[in-house]
C-alpha cells in the first residue's frame, strides 16, 4: 500500500472543456507516451467544480463520467430522452461524455465531484461514505476526499485523519479493508485496464 496526502493548497485549476466554468483538479493520470497533458491524453481525472447557473455540459467523446453533489441540492441533468436526478446530495449518477446534457438548478448553486475515465482505459466507481463502516478495496487507485469537514479512516490497522477538502490517495497492489471511523467521505476508485 502506498498513501499520499493531496493538500488542497496544491490542487490546480483548469477550465471546463467548453469554457463554461472552472474545475478544481484533485488528481489525474495521463498516457505516459505523450509530451503534453490534455483531454486527448487523459486516462482518468478526479475533480470538483461549482455549478452556479444552468447550462450545457462539455462534449467529451470517449469519456465515461461519474458525478455527485457534495454541497447544495436540487441538481438535475437533462439529456435527450432521460434525466439524471442529483437533487439529493451524495447520489452518484453515471453518464457518457457524448450525451448532450444541460443542467437544471432547482435550489441554487451546487458543488459537485466528478470522476472521469477514458472508456476502455479504466473502470471507475464513486460512492459516498456517510456513516461508520467497512468497505473492501480492490487493487487500484483510491481517492478518499473529505468535502465537508475532517474525516477519519482506517486502512487495515493504520489510521488517517483527512482535513476538509483534503484527499488521501491510496494505491493498492491487492485488496485492503477501509473503515470510515468518523465524518463523511467521498471514495473514488480507479482500476486501469490492460
TrEMBL record:
Pfam families: HutD. Gene3D superfamilies: Jelly Rolls. InterPro entries: RmlC-like_jellyroll, RmlC_Cupin_sf, Uncharacterised_HutD/Ves. It comes from the Bacteria. PANTHER family: PROTEIN VES. This is HutD-family protein.
Amino acid at each position: 500500500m502506498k498513501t499520499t496526502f493531496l493538500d488542497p493548497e496544491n490542487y490546480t485549476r483548469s477550465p471546463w472543456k467548453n469554457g463554461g466554468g472552472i474545475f478544481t483538479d484533485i488528481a489525474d493520470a495521463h498516457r505516459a507516451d505523450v509530451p503534453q497533458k490534455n483531454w486527448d491524453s487523459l486516462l482518468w481525472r478526479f475533480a470538483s467544480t461549482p455549478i452556479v447557473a444552468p447550462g450545457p455540459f462539455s462534449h467529451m467523446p470517449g469519456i465515461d463520467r461519474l458525478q455527485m453533489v457534495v454541497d447544495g441540492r436540487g441538481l438535475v441533468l437533462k439529456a435527450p430522452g432521460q434525466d439524471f436526478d442529483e437533487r439529493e446530495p451524495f447520489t452518484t449518477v453515471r453518464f457518457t461524455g457524448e450525451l448532450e446534457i444541460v443542467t437544471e438548478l432547482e435550489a441554487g448553486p451546487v458543488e459537485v465531484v466528478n470522476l472521469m475515465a477514458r472508456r476502455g482505459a479504466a473502470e471507475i466507481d464513486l460512492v459516498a461514505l456517510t456513516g461508520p463502516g467497512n468497505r473492501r478495496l480492490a487493487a487500484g487507485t483510491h481517492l478518499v476526499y473529505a468535502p465537508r469537514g475532517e474525516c477519519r479512516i482506517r486502512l487495515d490497522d493504520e489510521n488517517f485523519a483527512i482535513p476538509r477538502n483534503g484527499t488521501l490517495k491510496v494505491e493498492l497492489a491487492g485488496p485492503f479493508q477501509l473503515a470510515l471511523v468518523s465524518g463523511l467521505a467521498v471514495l473514488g476508485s480507479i482500476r486501469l485496464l490492460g
